[in-house]
Amino acid sequence: MSGADSIQDVLERVDLTQLPVGVYVIAEDGRFLACNASARVVLGLPSEGPPSGSITELHVDLDRHAELVKAAQQAEREGSGFERAVVHLRIDTRDVFVEDCLYPLRAQPGGELIGYVGCMIDITEDHQATERNLALQDKVEELTLDIGRILHANTSTLLMVNQTLVAVAGALAPPELDCNSVEASDPQRIEIWIEHTAAALGQALERLVTAGEPERRLQALPEHAWKQLSNQIALLREYRERIPIEELRNPTLRISAAAVASLCHGIAPHVLPREPVRDATRLAMELQRAVCCADVRTTRAAVIQMDFTLRALRDFITAEMRPREHRERLRVPMLIQEAIAQLAEFARSSNVDLVWRERPHDLLVFGSERDLLRALANLLHNAIKYSWRRDRGKPPWVSIRTEERAGMACMEFESWGVPITHDEIERGLIYQMGYRGKWSTDRGRLGTGIGLTDALRVATAHGGDLLVDSQPAQVSGLRPEDDAYYRNPFLTRVTLRLPVCE
């Protein structure tokens, strides 16, 4: 067997012509000697007649053919198997990718080399799909990093906003009411300041509208202006009753105080006694300060909440981009203390008391500190955010319990406030990415809907689980199908359970 015709006969005799694998024979210089039907289709050769051309003319990388030849020779010398390699060919204008390998062809063992037998499989579609997936993965990773950078930049901006608001609050509040101190940060003190100032302004207006003779009052202000001042008296004294919606009280008081201040500044000088005008003007300005101080505090709370939300979102998005953190034995009290430290300022700004009831110092778990802290902080953040205020005398609270139950370290967060429906828990809706509970958006609460999703993933990855229970805080006689049932406060408990590390 020395010619191409006899080699082609061999392919046909062993019925390789219709094999779905492309089989071809080439001379030492790469010229085609024979091909089966599958190889002709892949290589774009005529379906009949002797093949023409050289395999080297089809290689995009000319060195690739030499590498395949060298690998075939080495495998023959060592008596080892022949490994396939991915080869990039250009057939006319098409890019074709094949898995290919070469075998030395000899008439007898150790005899003269005739050429090489090649076996190729067309993997173009799979290869291109892989390339697209890799390109997409690169884009996703790049986008993920970009999102992380954007979120980091936003958290830096929020930090500067918070610092600015601290300065503004300090400038607005009187010395005896430092709005930025831990002790004075609760809203009751600011509300008392607003209430007292509004009542004092009402009294000052009552004195002002009766100051001097009627003729002199009309010289100081026109009659319609005095009516406007008189109308403010009842509003200032009874604003809680007259404005039942809490969120509208401060804006209304701000408008009222600004109107009073403007009218007082318009009073003609030296017409009325100085003291009533001065008192009304001063108290109107102080009421504006008090309301603005309350608004700054509310804005600070929103900024702090947004800052935590963005940080948690950034950590969640970039979690897969970071190197895997080494797992180690961790003390549960340390994890709880760190989570509380992260949320302490948010709790203070939200006027929520954090109460840690049990502290077993020997309770250990095994895991990633960063992931577990993120999960616990998310759960504590939710508990603070969705707490309701009971009355003016008592701030909201979040109770934290840590204990061991049946070999599991249980870290429980309990809050009094926003309900979670039984259906949302039973159907697992609260664990779905981006899902926010039916009642979670009351009073404009911000959220991303990833806190419980991420916490459950972390718990599961550590061999634990997450339990959620939400029940009415008091007996009301209402049923879940009643409209008012979920408008009452609920006790909600979320428990992260992890195996105890012996």
Could you explain how this protein is built, in words?
This protein is an alpha+beta fold. The protein has 3 domains: 4-129, Beta-Lactamase; 187-299, Substrate Binding Domain Of Dnak, Chain:A, Domain 2; 323-499, Heat Shock Protein 90 (2-Layer Sandwich). The protein contains 14 helices and 12 strands. The chain has a 5-stranded antiparallel beta sheet with strand order 2-1-5-4-3. Strand 9 (397-405) and strand 10 (408-417) form a beta hairpin. Helix 7 packs antiparallel against helix 9 (246-265) and helix 10 (274-317) runs antiparallel to helix 11 (332-349). The longest helix has 49 residues, at 124-172. It is elongated and about 130 Å long. The chain starts with a helix and ends with a strand.
CATH first level of the largest domain: Alpha Beta
Main sheet properties: 5 strands, antiparallel
Write down the domain tally. Answer: 3
The named CATH superfamily of the largest domain: Histidine kinase-like ATPase, C-terminal domain
Radius of gyration: 39 Å
